[in-house]
Design goal:
The chain is mainly alpha-helical. It has a single domain (about 5-165), classed as Orthogonal Bundle (Tetracycline Repressor, domain 2), CATH 1.10.357.10. About 75% of the residues lie in helices and about 0% in strands. It contains nine helices and no strands. The protein has helices at about 5-20, 25-30, 35-40, 45-70, 75-85, 90-100, 105-125, 135-145, 155-165. The radius of gyration is 17 Å and the shape is elongated. It starts with a helix and ends in a 6-residue tail after the last helix.
Length: about 170
């Protein structure tokens, strides 16, 4: 039997691959090889599922990233490793942003995620003694947002090179 997390992880995969309109009970059931009854065991309906999916996105790609970065030294480098190491992250970021243009709940989550990520980047930059932490945080974040829209997309190594160039003059956090 699939767990709630299995359903949510599959939803993120569908979202990244095909966009928000493709995230349906039928598609999820088919991909997981499960019945609608299994879906309704975990979620009251599609609206509840979509809300949980957005929370799951925020937790996996913001809250967990910050926790991992904070768990050791060289926090900014740890964060950059996470950002450049997730193969599905660029497509997912673009898909959530597209969804946020059409759905008020997705927009509210995207605004909260953007704000939290920029605040965290600003904190990291300030800790390293970097100048203009808010501006640098926005620059580093804009690299992530913009990179997701390139066709063809940047490889993880290419994205890392851009980040390394942006932070090069400063020491480790």
């Amino acid at each position: 039997m699939a767990t709630e997390r299995d359903w949510l992880d599959e939803g993120l995969a569908v979202l990244a691959e095909q966009g928000a309109p493709a995230v349906t009970i039928e598609v999820l059931c088919e991909r997981l090889g499960l019945t609608k009854g299994s879906f309704y065991h975990h979620f009251r309906g599609m609206a509840a599922y979509r809300a949980a999916l957005l929370d799951h996105f925020e937790n996996r790609f913001t809250t967990e990233f910050i926790a991992v970065a904070e768990s050791g030294e060289a926090k900014l480098e740890r964060l950059l490793n996470l950002v450049t190491g997730k193969g599905d992250a660029a497509g997912l970021e673009v898909a959530v942003r597209a969804w946020a243009q059409q759905d008020p709940l997705a927009r509210a989550v995207q605004e909260r995620v953007d704000r939290r990520r920029i605040e965290y980047l600003s904190t990291l930059w300030r800790r390293r003694g970097g100048e203009e932490p808010e501006t640098m945080a926005r620059l580093l974040y804009l690299i992530l947002v913009g990179a997701g829209h390139l066709v063809p997309s940047l490889t993880a190594d290419e994205l890392r090179e851009v980040y390394e160039l942006a932070v090069r003059p400063y020491g480790r956090s």
